[in-house]
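Bug: token stream looks shifted between consecutive jobs. Job 1:
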Amino acid sequence: MKPFVWPLLCALCLPSPPAQAQAPQRVNRCTNAQGDTVFTDRRCDALGATSRLPARTASVGNTGIYRAGCARRLSELTGQIRDAVSARDVNRLSSIYLWSNVSNATANQIIGRLESVVQRPLIDIAPVYPESAPVMVDPALAAAGPVEAPSRPRPIGLRIEQTLGSTATPARTVFGLRRQYGCFWITL
């Protein structure tokens, strides 16, 4: 064989470079100037819209690994859920779960479900309200003057909107809310 053929044959025998893995596509939930919700793979500000979930700012005493206390407000709890999902940290999410009266077998199932939640991209966290019965007003009261509308009920859960992996397929998890020890906790 001629000397210039060997390099050509060697180059043909080399393995081809691996195909590049496609990064999961992030879906953003934005609100445009008209107040409509828009789902996009681009940044919200590129569409002239604002993000539905603004970046959380760190608060004094509640940063890093040490948590200064439990969530006393619903906004703190949603921030902790957002932080846990952003960090893909099932331990952080499990720290706000109400574990009382949970058996070992059930705890393993719950941890598996929480692990699934932190592995999916977060789109939105929204409160879940109880179904309200129609308000009955006594006709005598209605004739006496204007009747004050009942106040909005308290949320009974949090709906976590996500997507499955690198697709745009929606995934939804609903956490129940419990108030115990003066703090908010999630349940499944």
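Job 2, same session, no restart:
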Amino acid sequence: MIDMEKDGKAIATVEAYVQAYYNRLTNSKIADRLYLDLSQLKDAFNHADAAAGEEPNLDLAVKYLAPETLQFLEGLQDNLDNEGILASVKAFNALYENKKEFVNMKLTSAVPLTAEQKSRIMDKMEKRIGEATFFVTEVVDPAVMGGVRLESENHYFDNTIATKLKEMKRHILKD
């Protein structure tokens, strides 16, 4: 069992994993569910009386976890002791509670984008919207021909060649 209090490297590993997992979430509903599940898991630890040597009832707590939460915990397999679980819950909750807004975003492009391209696009979107957690679903649609389209419940940005051609056609036919 790793002593998470003494092993800063283990804590850093858990925190890096949680950050990477959080960044890969595809929508806010999954983040909400993870937050709820991890909070319940934390409660199971809090109800156990460690001073009396009582262990948390993880069998009961894990029984009702969502598949996404179980997948999250599987990634902690090297640190899947009580301290590792608590450190991951703390790290995830800190990320979740720190963000002001959750935005489910659909990013459409003609070809798959590189990580650097996606990062630049989302940085620009964050400047327009403000600080938020973006859950991005990528769609490759050759019909857009080039450029990108970003869509969410409250935001729409279309800088695709297909849209520009339609606007040009409409303008020409209007004259």
